[in-house]
Design brief:
The protein is of the alpha/beta class. It has helices spanning 29-43, 61-67, 100-104, 122-133, 153-158, 214-218, 226-247, 250-255, 262-273, 281-289, 291-297, 317-327, 343-348, 364-369, 371-386; strands at 15-18, 48-51, 71-78, 84-92, 95-99, 138-143, 162-164, 183-185, 197-202, 277-280, 300-308, 331-339, 353-356. The chain is 37% helix and 19% strand. Helix 1 (29-43) crosses helix 15. The two termini are 30 Å apart.
Length: 388
């Protein structure tokens, strides 16, 4: 047939983009993508499936970057309890994706062990330094999933800052020790930071302190009692005042800036000490992972995470994926372990329908243990509904 005989373009063959986050406690984002692909191919044989595991800056961010083609680099750093741990960052073309949870995350604590007052972000600073050593000049710093509430003081100390008590000795690790802080000196920070772009990627916009601050909102998840929360909040308020003496009014301004309360206040440390720029984690990660180019090829997007709930709507990965897909006119459906959003809330988020694993296996423990096979089954259901 000649060009002149063409009367209209053929319909696009279905091309599914799987862009889901991890199912926390069950499946990594990479595993979610593999299981969804298998289920889709079972329900709609021959369908074209492209996978792009995503993350919003919290735990799993490095794994998503590696799946997108970044090189994985490992280094020994200080864990949240002060013991050595192996942590990874991802590197490509001078950009490093650094995930604080790799060095200072809650998942690094022994089961049932918490250290809300003393857990340190020192290892996160060592991880950033390792990325600089590897030649990175753009540091994408994903924060979330932390075991810590030290305002990023440990991180800054690892990068050359000094936090001293009244006797001129370094204060101890963790947020509570900041109550003893008498002076701060950021002049010794690694000079390479001045020539590097640091981008803070977080899914929270909480301030550092107060009723919506890091101690009040997040420290209880890390084992903090109400008394611990009060101690941490007061210590961080004092920390800001001492930093004001060291760097001026921007220390107080940063404390109320979006992202300051991320990951126990490490966001604050990045803003005030590393001159980081803040971006919502999922928006930044979608750019880095090449999501928008993949979206152009898609006729259907499948997103998801372990629990689709109210938190999902506030900066989590599925909401970011759905917003970008809706803007491009591509339909979105979701898979999840648990669904706690009504259809109208899903619709407002740009998600046509959600497929929860609990609809197939109502026992939560069994559902968690069998998440992989169950996800294949619901993905096959989804394929029959949307691709048959």
């Amino acid at each position: 047939m000649t060009d002149g005989a063409v009367t209209g373009a053929a319909p696009r063959a279905p091309h599914v983009l799987v862009a889901a986050d991890k199912f926390k406690g069950s499946l990594t984002a990479v595993q979610v993508a593999e299981r969804v692909r298998a289920g889709l191919c079972a329900g709609a044989p021959g369908v074209e499936v492209e996978t792009l595991p995503v993350a919003d800056g919290g735990d799993g961010t490095v794994a998503a970057a590696v799946a997108a083609g970044f090189e994985r680099r490992e280094v020994r750093v200080t864990g949240p309890l002060g013991e050595p741990v192996t942590a990874a960052f991802a590197l490509r073309d001078g950009t490093a994706v650094v995930e604080m949870a790799e060095a200072s995350g809650l998942q690094l604590l022994p089961e049932g062990v918490f250290a809300p007052l003393t857990a340190t972000t020192y290892g996160s600073g060592e991880l950033l330094r390792a990325a600089l050593d590897a030649g990175a000049r753009r540091l994408v710093f994903g924060v979330g999933g932390s075991a810590t509430t030290d305002g990023g003081a440990g991180m800054l100390a690892a990068l050359g800052a000094r936090f001293l008590d009244a006797d001129g000795q370094p204060v101890g690790p963790g947020g509570a020790a900041l109550a003893d802080l008498a002076s701060a000196d950021l002049s010794g920070l690694d000079p390479r930071l001045a020539d590097a772009e640091v981008v803070l990627a977080s899914d929270v916009d909480n301030p550092l302190t107060g009723p919506k601050g890091a101690p009040a909102v997040f420290a209880p998840q890390k084992g903090a009692t109400p008394e611990d929360v009060a101690v941490l909040d007061a210590a961080l308020v004092h920390y800001v005042k001492v930093l004001e003496q060291a760097v001026g009014p921007r220390a107080a301004e940063a404390a109320v800036s979006p992202g300051a309360g991320g990951a126990g206040g490490i966001g604050y440390g990045a803003l005030v000490g590393l001159d980081a720029g803040f971006r919502p984690g999922i928006e930044l990660m979608l750019d880095i992972l090449g999501f928008h180019a993949a979206l152009e090829r898609a006729t259907l997007v499948i997103t998801g995470e372990g629990s689709l709930d109210e938190q999902t709507l506030h900066g989590k990965a599925p909401a970011g994926v759905a917003a970008a897909a809706r803007a491009a006119g591509v339909e979105v459906v979701a898979v999840c372990g648990r669904l706690a959003l009504p259809p109208e809330a899903l619709g407002r988020a740009g998600i046509r329908r959600a497929y929860p694993l609990l609809a197939r296996e109502p026992d939560p423990a069994t559902c968690m243990a069998q998440a992989g096979p169950l996800l294949e089954l619901v993905a096959a259901d989804l394929a029959r509904d949307f691709l048959a």
